[in-house]
Automatic annotation (TrEMBL):
<dbReference type="Pfam" id="PF01980">
    <property type="entry name" value="TrmO_N"/>
</dbReference>
<dbReference type="InterPro" id="IPR023368">
    <property type="entry name" value="UPF0066_cons_site"/>
</dbReference>
<feature type="domain" description="TsaA-like">
    <location>
        <begin position="5"/>
        <end position="146"/>
    </location>
</feature>
<dbReference type="Pfam" id="PF18389">
    <property type="entry name" value="TrmO_C"/>
</dbReference>
<dbReference type="InterPro" id="IPR036414">
    <property type="entry name" value="YaeB_N_sf"/>
</dbReference>
<dbReference type="InterPro" id="IPR040372">
    <property type="entry name" value="YaeB-like"/>
</dbReference>
<comment type="similarity">
    <text>Belongs to the tRNA methyltransferase O family.</text>
</comment>
<dbReference type="InterPro" id="IPR041369">
    <property type="entry name" value="TrmO_C"/>
</dbReference>
<protein>
    <submittedName>
        <fullName>tRNA (N6-threonylcarbamoyladenosine(37)-N6)-methyltransferase TrmO</fullName>
    </submittedName>
</protein>
<keyword id="KW-0949">S-adenosyl-L-methionine</keyword>
<dbReference type="InterPro" id="IPR023370">
    <property type="entry name" value="TrmO-like_N"/>
</dbReference>
<dbReference type="InterPro" id="IPR036413">
    <property type="entry name" value="YaeB-like_sf"/>
</dbReference>
Amino acid sequence: MTYSIDPIGRIHSPYKEKFSVPRQPRLAPAANARVELLGEANSPEAVRGLEQFSHVWLLFLFDQNLEAGWKPTVRPPRLGGNERIGVFASRSTFRPNGIGMSAVEVKGITQQGNQTWIELGSVDLVDGTPIIDIKPYIPYSDSIIEASGGFAESEPDVLPVVFSTSAQLNLKAHPNGQHIQTVIEQVLAQDPRPAYKKNKTDNKEYATHLFDLNVKFKVESKDSGHNLEINRNFIHVTSIEHF
């Protein structure tokens, strides 16, 4: 038997592409997002009482990965991308039904004309991701103090982020530059490169689309000529340009 699912909403987030999206929610606290409710779900009645809850579960589709299919085993980034485990022992985006879930903060409910929005805190979703359900987060049942996190027990390491002079000037000229700089720092500190490059420097310049900006960066070391008081690898934002 097969079932069809119609999205009830759409995410609006700073992440315009999969590259650089945090691997879990709340890793970039400044990167707020919102849900645009769609169809019959686009009603103040559908969210009545939701403001009583601090967080919700978002159920969504990995729509950009659906055509790629899935495999029984995957290589999680937390294991360096080298060790295979079962897909159901991971949060891989390549899943049998392409369904994901995230616990995110509710910052408010807003109404703009006939459009109902749910304002959210930090998410790990690409802009435009289809939302298929929203459920309130219940602390007494959803928060399990004695739970074990397996290979993802600890929070991921982060790298310092340094901005070039030209990148700083472009941010200062942006009307929302200070907030955007904070988001860029929090996102790039996670080192969005492939897992096998973690803790390694290379000469490649990467680029990611955040907000309306093309952010270019490299991963460098203290001895790369920047005379910085950093005792490990760091993210060097080389340029920031408008699309």
